[in-house]
Amino acid sequence: MVQSIFCTTAFAAALSLTPCLSVAQEVFGTLTASLDGIQRSWFLTAHEGESQSFGLTVSIANLQSFSMWGQPSAYDVQTMQDSLLLSFDVMSVGDQVIPLNMSVTYLENGWASGWVSDDPENIVFALTTLKKSDAGVLIEGSFDTVASYGEPLSHGATDASRTMLINGSFHATLPPGLLNTQ
User: Fold this and answer.
1) The whole model's pTM is what?
2) Predicted confidence (pLDDT) per residue in 99-122, tens digit
3) CB 33, CB 23: distance < 8 Å
């Protein structure tokens, strides 16, 4: 009996020391924001070309659309809980770049409840860098908004009496595999 307990303990100890297999993640950017004064970071991730973040170019309209889905850790790809989403469009007119249709969403409990600001009039947004390269599209900027609470967010209704200040910045190089053209 003593030998079997020893063998079991030794086997368990050996297993705990073996390296864990992990899925290779690609982190291609970050969203850093303050939620009512508490500073946080979220990671823009992909695995085998799959991501919840993307860029879309509509050539005929000179329009680019970006959706950045910040994951709570660098090891997540498709988490909804505790995720920060930033979406916006960019229209190019000559050398001028005009941001449009900005939205900021904090999925506190996935789509069950969270905070949303989707009125561009209530979002201070600055796009400081938008540059194409062989590595993808580099986008950088900042945002500042007051988001309203919604439960569930999927219904689109929010409670304007419950608000959260969200201000932050973003830095990402969206890889070519996440960029589409229509």
Assistant:
1) 0.83
2) 999 999 999 999 999 999 999 899
3) no
